[in-house]
């Protein structure tokens, strides 16, 4: 999302405050929401894997987040 906001601003000189506000997230809140969802969330993991590659190679930080997401979503 941050990449998208930056590109929209740089390439099209569009500043969308509402979109930019979506980028400022609280990681604890995100994990709490994921943990509260029942069942298998493998579709979320699949989407996250795809999104992580949009701007190039997956970084070590992104890999760490994807790993935690995988652990939380693919619980039994």
Oligomer: single chain
Kindly provide the radius of gyration, computed on alpha-carbon positions and rounded to a whole number of angstroms. 14 Å
C-alpha geometry: globular
Uncertain spans, ≥5 residues at pLDDT below 50?
none
Share of β-strand residues: under 5%
Structural class: mainly alpha
Short characterization:
The chain is an all-alpha fold.
Describe this structure in words.
This protein is an all-alpha fold and 76 residues long. Helices cover 70% and strands 0% of the residues. It starts with a helix and ends with a helix.
Defining traits:
single chain, 76 residues, mainly alpha, 5 helices, 0% strand, globular
Can you lay out the helices and strands and say which pair or pack?
Layout: H1 2-12, H2 17-23, H3 27-36, H4 42-52, H5 60-73
């Amino acid at each position: 999302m941050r990449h998208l906001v930056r590109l929209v601003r740089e390439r099209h000189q569009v500043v969308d405050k509402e979109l930019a506000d979506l980028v400022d997230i609280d990681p604890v809140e995100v994990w709490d929401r994921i943990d509260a969802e029942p069942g298998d969330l493998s579709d979320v993991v699949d989407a996250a894997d795809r999104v992580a590659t949009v701007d190039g190679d997956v970084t070590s930080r992104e890999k760490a987040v994807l790993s935690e997401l995988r652990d939380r979503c693919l619980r039994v």
